[in-house]
Amino acid sequence: MPRLRLALAQIDPTVGDLTGNSSLVHGWTSKAAGAGAHVVAFPEMMLTGYPVEDLVFRRSFVAASKRAVDELAAQLASDGLGDTVVIVGYLDADEVGPRNALAVLHRGTQVATYFKHHLPNYGVFDEDRYFEPGDTLTVIRVGGVDIALTICEDLWQEGGPFAVAALAQVGLVVNINGSPYELNKDDTRLALVARRAAEARSTVAYVNTVGAQDELVFDGDSMVVRPDGSLIARAQQFAEQLMVLDLDLPAAAPVPPVVAGAELRVVNVLISDSVVDSDQPAPAPEIAARVTDEAEIWQALVLGLRDYVRKNGFRGVAIALSGGIDSAVVTAIACDALGPANVVAVSLPSGHSSQHSKDDAEDMARRTGLDYRVEPIQPMVDSFLANMALSGLAVENLQARVRGVIMMAISNQEGPLVLTTGNKSELAVGYSTLYGDSVGAFNPLKDVPKTLVWKLARWRNEEAERRGDVPPIPERSITKPPSAELRPGQLDADSLPDYEVLDAILAGYVDGDLGRDDLVAAGHDPAVVDRTLRMVDLAEYKRRQSAPGTKISIKAFGRDRRLPITNRFSN
Ligand SMILES: Nc1ncnc2c1ncn2[C@@H]1O[C@H](COP(=O)(O)OP(=O)(O)OC[C@H]2O[C@@H]([n+]3cccc(C(=O)O)c3)[C@H](O)[C@@H]2O)[C@@H](O)[C@H]1O
Ligand SMILES: Nc1ncnc2c1ncn2[C@@H]1O[C@H](COP(=O)(O)OP(=O)(O)OP(=O)(O)O)[C@@H](O)[C@H]1O
Ligand SMILES: NC(=O)CC[C@H](N)C(=O)O
């Protein structure tokens, strides 16, 4: 049985940075070659980053992507890395149209190509808008083993390339991915890889991107699964990693079997019938342990923020820190993502701010060591009111807007990106001030319901205690009743249902697309359902103007849920 040393490079590309991404592939190929790997596989659209959206329509971008493949192949060979077979995702186009493509590089040239067959067109994906599907399955022979090549969504469909791979009697299927994180998706993925391994009657090697691109965060979770469903290696989530392992795989027949009448035509490419074995065996493959839901989500939010800030050329962020739970959790995420020295937190007290709010903001600053300031807003609010006759809601919102102006002034003056703090529950019902507390470049809590905000706060503090660190979030910020403090004695509970009740209704209406009658049938109070649904529908205009934020759920506001603003239909 031939033994192949396979490397899976779970790494973090940047969309549009063809030069930077090529040099990442070069660097990690060099590590893989150093570890004696015969084959190294990189994620989907590695050279362009993923998803590239309408960049696909620019001919200059497609041409640059194709050029990057050729230049990378040549560079690898001239640097003595040409013998390592490199499998890498890129953007291609032929006479049929743009392709989500995979290149195989060997000894200075692109020796094989595969075009993604199944194009996802649901949720955040729009691949029917961008790509033409491939209709052939590429099988490369390396070291006497036949390896079928597939791309991401190909794994999610039955009866496609994996079924054809079984007919082609391959020993291994490599699947390269740009598969975004969602809570619990890792469980789905493992089951799916096992199903496809059974369908292909072959070992499956799954390599995923890690890192964030705008609202998507990719968790990695690369793995190798045997045809009987047994997991033999699994990378950790949310970290770059080169997984190298020795695989004993069935030898290919001297002549590839003829596959007729299948969904895809099989194209066989011979690269090598034997390979040079390394003197040293590869280290035993590791199966990274799974973490709790809270730990997983926290890592997703930290990486989502860090990559957004870093990839957009910023060093730090500024946060309006109220002493309440939302801004406290955003601040803790920012400190973990960027280090407290790169986090400016500003307490912006008004005449309605309670002493405990001011104290809790200061306490959080002390606990974390971030850059803390106090900017009282009352003089600015008063001078506005001295020049304009405002009352009621207009005055309440004016305070939030003065805070927004101050935060943007700090950003303009000193450079940090402003983070906004509205959680998913508030965004759902429009409980925020437009151009006020909703001001900002990025919102780490955009897809985090309020009840989960509290859970994450508790988890983060407990985690600090487990590590012997100071818990970053003041206990009182977690336990006190939420209040916008825009008028005396104001509580969220005056305007909104209890958050436990609200989040349960929102999970059904937003995440589950249930209608009013389904929600009432599920046991919710009809009057509360009606009020909540009305608030959600009316707030579409606010969401359409809201900052981007990391997706962690099956249905995040934004691309996952596209609704008209002008809309007279209600359930
Ligand atoms: N369909 C539509 N398309 C486009 N724009 C539309 C619109 N409908 C209203 N608008 C515009 O939106 C305005 C109303 O929105 P907005 O000005 O935000 O005001 P609004 O939503 O009426 O009030 C903000 C609410 O958020 C609460 N809140 C909760 C939590 C935190 C904070 C905080 O600030 O810290 C605030 C606050 O207590 C208040 O109840 C209208 O005056 C109109 O200009
Ligand atoms: N006194 C304040 N100083 C600084 N920022 C403030 C102040 N009051 C409100 N903000 C900003 O406005 C945001 C919205 O207020 P909101 O009350 O919804 O959130 P919170 O205070 O963080 O949490 P909670 O809703 O649980 O009280 C805050 O997260 C914060 O960024
Ligand atoms: N890039 C893709 O094809 C992703 C689609 C796939 N269903 C996933 O989320 O993993």
Automatic annotation (TrEMBL):
It comes from the Bacteria. The keyword Cell cycle does not apply. Keywords: ATP-binding, Ligase, NAD, Nucleotide-binding. SUPFAM superfamilies: Adenine nucleotide alpha hydrolases-like, Carbon-nitrogen hydrolase. ATP binds at residues 320-327, 421. The active site is at residues 44, 116, 152. Residues 4-249 form the CN hydrolase domain. Belongs to the NAD synthetase family. This is Glutamine-dependent NAD(+) synthetase. It comes from Dactylosporangium siamense. The lineage of its organism: Bacteria, Bacillati, Actinomycetota, Actinomycetes, Micromonosporales.
